[in-house]
Amino acid sequence: MSLQVPAALLDRAKAGPVSDEDFLACVRDSLPYAWKVVSQVADRLHQDGGEYADDNTVPPSDVEQGQLLRALASSSMRGALERHFGVKLEFQNCCKVAAFRPDAVDGATHQTFVSPRAQLLNQSPRLLSC
């Protein structure tokens, strides 16, 4: 299961839309490693002011890797994270997370990062289980 949804939040979802704030609290509490990685790259991007910031840390275990996969593979989670942090998230190899400034999307640096070539060049024996 991707998220541990509190009963009260599930009841609200059954009754109608839920706020990003409530949804993000569930994501943060259910997927703390993914939240930490996304938060760190977004914070670094905002502090450094460049086009993007990334994290290429291999997750410490399959549990943490699974959190990243679930958070970034879900359109609703990824979208909520992007809105919350004010970034565009990109993902390579099950662990390389990057946060781009929205105005850098579709620019040369962004296009290079999301290219098939970049994916191929980012392969490594240490990422074999991805």
Blueprint of the fold:
Blueprint: H1 7-15, H2 20-30, H3 32-48, E1 52-55, H4 62-73, H5 75-85, E2 88-92, E3 96-100, H6 108-113, H7 116-121
Antiparallel strand pairs: 1-3, 2-3
Helix pairs in contact: 2-3, 2-5, 3-4
Task: Give a structural overview.
By secondary structure, the protein is mostly helical. It has one domain (18-122). It contains 7 helices and 3 strands. It has helices at residues 7-15, 20-30, 32-48, 62-73, 75-85, 108-113, 116-121, and strands at residues 52-55, 88-92, 96-100. Strands 1-3-2 form a 3-stranded antiparallel β-sheet. The longest helix is centred in the first third of the chain and has 17 residues, at 32-48. It is globular, with a radius of gyration of 15 Å. The two termini are 19 Å apart.
How confident is the prediction overall: mean pLDDT? 91
- In which range does the helix fraction lie? 55-70%
Strand element count: 3
**Strand line-up in the sheet with most strands:** 1-3-2
Measured by DSSP, the beta-strand proportion falls in 5-15%
Could you describe the largest sheet, including whether it forms a barrel? 3 strands, antiparallel
Low-pLDDT residue spans: none
Order of helices and strands: HHHEHHEEHH
Q: What Rg is obtained from the alpha carbons, in whole angstroms?
A: 15 Å
Structural class: mainly alpha
